[in-house]
Design brief:
2 domains; Hypothetical protein af1432; HD domain-containing protein; HDIG_dom; 10 helices; HD_domain
Length: 198
């Protein structure tokens, strides 16, 4: 990791809680996934890794400000990158990837780097870590098992079919199977499964 990226990570670390459903640990996992997926797909890492680093920087402020974190995060990333004189021709691609990463943003990722970031962020919502994050988020919001389980049907079980890159599709199939097996086990133990049409 070069010094520029290390400094970016330090900057983002200061803005996020160390852990949580969208804490700095999530950012680090997304960066690592982007490194792996981006290398396989031939992405421009000088665009992808800064975008992954900044993608959730304003997530903790979203509820308070009402500003979508992907919009404010893109603005903050652009300001930071300008302040360190990052190559100006790379900044629009970074900004676009941040704006397009969110599952519910409605902005289509138009570049390979934006697609890889979207895939990496969605992969971190699947599998074992996705299960942990779902229940962490439910707890953070004062919700219980039923609300967490509903999130699987509202979002997580749909992610497998929303992957843009072949590299991510491979991982998504495995992580999706783990989610389904978990829900089967949870249903057997608690009867907590929420039908998709509930």
């Amino acid at each position: 990791m070069n010094e520029e990226i290390a400094a970016m990570l330090d900057h983002v670390r200061a803005a996020l809680p160390a852990s949580g459903a969208h804490g700095f640990d999530h950012t680090l996992r997304v960066v690592r996934l982007c490194e792996r997926l981006g290398a396989r797909e031939g992405a421009d890492m000088a665009v992808l890794i800064p975008a992954a680093t900044f993608h959730d920087i304003t997530r903790p402020l979203e509820e308070e400000t009402g500003i979508p974190h992907e919009e404010e995060g893109a603005r903050m990333a652009a300001a930071y990158l300008e302040s360190i004189r990052y190559p100006a021709d790379l900044v629009p691609g970074i900004v676009h990837a941040i704006r397009a990463h969110r599952y519910s943003s409605g902005i289509a990722p138009e570049t390979l780097e934006a697609r890889v970031l979207s895939d990496a962020d969605n992969l971190d919502a699947m599998g074992a870590v996705g299960i942990v994050r779902t229940f962490m988020q439910a707890g953070e919001q004062g919700h219980g098992i039923e609300d967490a389980t509903r999130h699987f049907y509202d979002k997580l079980l749909n992610l497998k079919d929303r992957m843009y890159t072949e590299s991510a599709r491979e991982s998504a199939r495995e992580r999706h199977a783990f989610l389904v097996a978990f829900l089967d086990a949870l249903d057997g133990e608690t009867g907590a499964r929420i039908p998709p049409d509930a």
